[in-house]
Design brief:
With about 525 residues, this protein is mainly β. It folds into two domains: about 280 residues, Tachylectin-2, Chain A, CATH 2.115.10; about 200 residues, Jelly Rolls. The protein is about 0% helix and about 45% strand. It is built from one helix and 37 strands. The strands form seven sheets. The chain has an eight-stranded antiparallel β-sheet with strand order 3-25-27-36-29-30-31-32, with no helix packed on it. Strands 24, 26, 28, 33, 34, 35 and 37 form a seven-stranded antiparallel β-sheet that branches. A hairpin with a 2-residue loop joins strand 15 and strand 16. The longest helix has 4 residues. The structure holds (Z)-L-Arabinonhydroximo-1,4-lactone (6LW). The site of (Z)-L-Arabinonhydroximo-1,4-lactone has 14 residues, from strand 11 and strand 15. It comes from Actinacidiphila glaucinigra. InterPro entries: ConA-like_dom_sf (IPR013320), GH43_C2 (IPR041542), Glyco_hydro_43 (IPR006710), Glyco_hydro_beta-prop_sf (IPR023296), Glycosyl_Hydrlase_43 (IPR051795). Keywords: Glycosidase, Hydrolase. This is Alpha-N-arabinofuranosidase.
Length: about 525
């Protein structure tokens, strides 16, 4: 039930083009159509595929990983799981190559293919001899294909350096063949951690683009070139060619890097890359987001954001032949009337539907499962990315919990160790309470609670910057009936505080804290509404 947006072509590119946790963007073009993928870690469905005609407006068309047969994320901790993916198109076939990191199941680098980027995508073909992370594919115009990636120079030694490796890729067998070539040792600029390598051929030369400096504040984009795909590569003396690390921690966009280039049908070059927008101090709660900047070639090197030097631009939008799709709506209301929930919902570690849309037609029914958000398990949590600093998120919740351990409501999730819950719970005396619980650094705190009469209740998380107001009101009551139970400083939900690589997800959550329970919670509707600036 996605409302379709329409819009006029904007005068300048509005960055980020994909707000909220959309890191490690990779893009490819097929005729007038662009497809883009981002990393999804422990969330299912994994690796959203976005489509655009103008590189600015992106519409989700499907997911690369949408069934349990493809990957097992069941033992993957937060910020592990599906790392940076690369999407490429060659002779009618789409390829995505990525790495499953962590967990005790099948892991490592794998490739999947599809003829339609909306899916279905194939089951993985594991590239067991591909070391490290951040794999990428390159289809040369001489008919040969190559796979590159990043690995630690000293296995297990993250404080050390990375190597960028290359092997030939057999597109029929989907295997690596031939010898390994070391394209780069260390970072292309003398910093640390060359990551996210991608290869391109421009005017007969091979270009190796890589992130470096780590995916946080010192992130940067560097480039090297060679006459042969196997090297030797020479770094651009002007490296890093794009970074915000010299602009300070109060610059509106920080940590830019991990770029992928695309040439438009009109012959322009653009880069998608990640960056984050901290607020309330240095709290990028929205995670690493996808930005778009123009690229121009000067002296046979790519120049990022020419004339501007930062993602702030302003940039004239790409020249496109096809009409733009218009903005994708930010506000989302899901009335749970359709056969499936809005495609932007995600679950943690499992592709199985633990919810039902048919048990009570028009509502999302959640069981109060045993798992909590605190474990590396499969909690009954359906979340969507927080994409705006200031946003009101509400749901109409109908639940009659029987014990103090039975909770159902809304959660804001960063990780197992760091999340925030606003829930209806039993009070131990046959009645109900509404409670606010914070788990930070792995320790749970009951922050506030209040008696709650029975009946459906609207729960609302009113986020304004770091302040997450936790509110409730009887269903159908006017705005004056709303009570703010408490407000929580959400700074602990940002990755600089919590660790890891992610932004936050929010949505309905139900648990019985390990106890067996027959109680269910019905969510009549969910509403995500950015607050007017
Ligand atoms: C990504 C890698 C990185 O694969 O973060 O720190 C990983 N570097 O480039 C997850 O986004």
């Amino acid at each position: 039930s996605l409302p379709e947006g329409t819009g006029e072509a904007a005068a300048t590119v509005a960055n980020p083009v994909l707000p909220g946790c959309h890191p490690d963007p990779s893009v490819c073009r097929v005729g007038a159509d662009y497809y883009l993928v981002t990393s999804t870690f422990e969330y299912f469905p994994g690796i959203p595929v976005f489509h655009s005609r103008d590189l600015v407006h992106w519409r989700p068309v499907g997911h690369v990983l949408d069934r349990p047969s493809q990957v097992d994320l069941g033992t993957v901790a937060s910020s592990e799981g599906i790392f940076a993916a690369t999407i490429r198109h060659h002779r009618g076939r789409f390829y995505v190559v990525t790495t499953l990191v962590g967990g005790s199941g099948r892991g490592g680098t794998f490739v999947v293919t599809a003829t339609d980027p909306a899916g279905p995508w194939s089951d993985p073909v594991w590239l067991d001899d591909a070391p490290g992370i951040d794999p990428s594919l390159f289809f040369d115009d001489d008919g040969r294909a190559w796979c590159t990636g990043t690995r630690l120079a000293e296995p297990g030694e993250w404080e050390g350096q990375t190597d960028v490796w290359l092997r030939e890729f057999d597109t029929a067998e989907l295997t690596l063949t031939g010898p390994e070539h070391l394209l780069w040792r260390g970072a292309l600029h003398g910093a640390v951690w060359a990551e996210g390598p991608h290869l391109y051929k421009v005017d007969g030369r091979y270009y190796l683009l890589a992130a470096e400096g780590g995916t946080e504040h010192r992130h940067a984009v560097s480039v090297a070139r060679a006459d042969r795909v196997t090297g030797p590569y020479t770094g651009n003396p002007a490296n890093p060619v794009f970074t915000h690390r010299h602009l300070g921690r109060d610059f509106p966009v920080v940590g830019v890097g991990h770029a992928d280039l695309v040439r438009t049908a009109a012959g322009e070059w653009w880069a998608v890359l990640l960056g984050s927008r901290p607020y309330g101090g240095y709290h990028p709660n929205l995670g690493r987001e996808t930005f778009l900047v123009p690229v121009r070639w000067e002296d046979d090197w790519p120049l990022f954001a020419p004339g501007a030097g930062t993602t702030l631009g302003p940039f004239r939008p790409p020249v496109v032949a096809a009409p733009a799709g218009g903005p994708h709506p930010d506000a989302v209301r899901d009335d749970f009337d359709g056969p499936r929930p809005d495609p932007r919902w995600n679950q943690v570690r499992t592709a199985e539907p633990f919810w039902s849309l048919t048990a009570r037609p028009g509502s999302l029914r959640l069981p109060l499962g045993p798992a909590t958000l605190a474990e590396v398990g499969t909690p009954c949590f359906l979340g969507r990315r927080q994409q705006h600093q200031d946003v009101a998120v509400s749901a109409l919740v109908d639940v009659e919990p029987r014990t103090p351990l039975e909770w159902a409501g809304l959660a804001v999730r960063q990780s197992e160790a760091d999340h925030l819950v606003l829930a209806v719970a039993g009070d131990g005396r046959g009645g109900r309470r509404v409670l606010a619980a914070v788990r930070t650094g792995g320790e749970e705190h009951l922050v506030a609670q209040a008696p709650l009469p029975s009946g459906p209740v609207v729960l609302r998380i009113h986020a304004e910057g770091r302040r997450y107001g936790l509110r409730y009101a009887p269903a159908g009551a006017g705005p004056d009936a709303e009570t703010e139970l408490t407000a929580v400083d959400g700074g602990f939900l940002s990755s600089p505080r919590a660790g890891g690589f992610l932004g936050v997800w929010l949505g309905p959550y139900a648990t019985a804290h390990g106890a067996p329970s027959a109680t269910v919670a019905d969510i009549d509707w969910f509403d995500y509404r950015p607050l007017a600036p």
